[in-house]
Design brief:
Blueprint lengths: L1 E2 L18 H9 L7 H9 L6 E11 L2 E10 L8 E6 L6 H12 L9 E5 L4 H6 L21 H10 L6 E9 L2 H14 L9 E2 L3 E5 L5 H11 L13 E2 L2 E5 L2 E4 L15 E7 L8 H21 L5
């Protein structure tokens, strides 16, 4: 089912047809109140986990005089000869269940992790988490900027953290949401920022996955979808047989040039990788179900990848 979107007027920052300058970015930031606390919701939530995991500060970002620690959770019995499992959340700070689903998984993994190394980064973009935004402080989308020389400090820091693990990562799952505000706020803002006209789209009601079109793993994606379907409903395609404009690989799975676009799920070079997309605005789900869907996806991704850990 596709949800029709009402027409959106031009975004109220900048000049139509002209890309934003620094003054426009400052005007954009002025519209964004701080709405929640990374220190309370993430940093404090990780403290009780120190009894079971190593909590590693792999960097920080400083915006407007406020320092945000960048935190990763690692297996305590890390061994370099074991395959690595990576979970990332909060690349887009407004996608709440990505952050809280990762934290919920850490509190109760519910899956056998013996013989593996687990690394979880629950909130890649803390400033965006606090301001419920897609972009970082400088109006950059972290999920188009995962490269070593990135202008997005959050992205560059995560690339540096994960670079030594490239070639050793068996599975990487990146936790996201698709929301109604994608169409009402973030896509209009993107068009305004880049000086382009806004082209309305559709939002599908339900959960779906994004596979890398250059490195597809359809059986792996299918296993994750099957597990999540027991928790929440899977998105149906639109009248053109697409989800967010992309054709289906299989029900609830689309393919996208993840590596070519410098998206998070590609930076580890994991054999098994996927991006989740939870739909929290559905009348058919709740915040708790959204978190549970992310946890189910993580567990299924780990279980499926581990079945194939020794096969070429």
């Amino acid at each position: 089912m596709s949800l029709p979107m009402t027409p959106t007027p031009f975004y109220p920052v900048g000049t139509p047809g002209t890309p934003w300058n620094e003054a426009d970015i400052q005007a954009w930031r002025a519209r964004l109140p701080r709405q929640r606390s990374h220190a309370d919701d993430v940093v404090a939530a990780l403290e009780p986990l120190r009894a079971r995991y190593d909590i590693h500060r792999y960097g920080e970002v400083v915006y407007d005089g406020h320092a945000y620690p960048l935190l990763a959770v690692r297996s305590r019995d890390w061994r370099d000869d074991q395959p690595v499992l990576v979970v990332t959340g909060g690349v887009h700070g407004y996608e709440t269940s990505g952050v809280h689903g990762a934290l919920e998984f850490l509190r109760d993994p519910g899956v056998a992790l013996d013989g593996t190394n687990l690394l979880v980064v629950p909130c890649v973009s803390p400033w965006a988490y606090e301001h419920i935004q897609r972009w970082n402080f400088h109006a950059l989308d972290p999920n188009r900027n995962f490269r070593a020389d990135s202008a997005a400090a959050e992205s560059a820091a995560l690339v540096a953290l994960l670079a030594p693990l490239r070639g050793h990562v068996l599975m990487h799952i990146d936790l996201h949401e698709t929301t109604d505000t994608d169409e009402s706020e973030f896509r209009p803002a993107l068009a305004a920022r880049d000086g382009k006209p806004f082209e309305p789209g559709e939002i599908q009601d339900g959960f779906y996955l994004v596979d890398d079109i250059d490195h597809p793993q359809p059986a792996f994606q299918r296993a994750v979808i099957d597990a999540v379907a027991r928790v929440t409903h899977i998105a149906e395609p639109d009248a053109q047989g697409r989800i967010i404009g992309e054709p289906l690989q299989s029900p609830g799975v689309i393919e996208f040039p993840v590596s070519r676009w410098n998206l998070c799920a590609a930076i580890t070079g994991a054999r098994f990788a996927t991006t989740t997309e939870v739909y929290p605005d559905s009348p058919r789900t709740t915040p708790a179900q959204c978190n549970a869907a992310q946890v189910a996806a993580i567990r299924a991704a780990i279980n499926e990848a581990m079945k194939h850990r020794l096969t070429p």
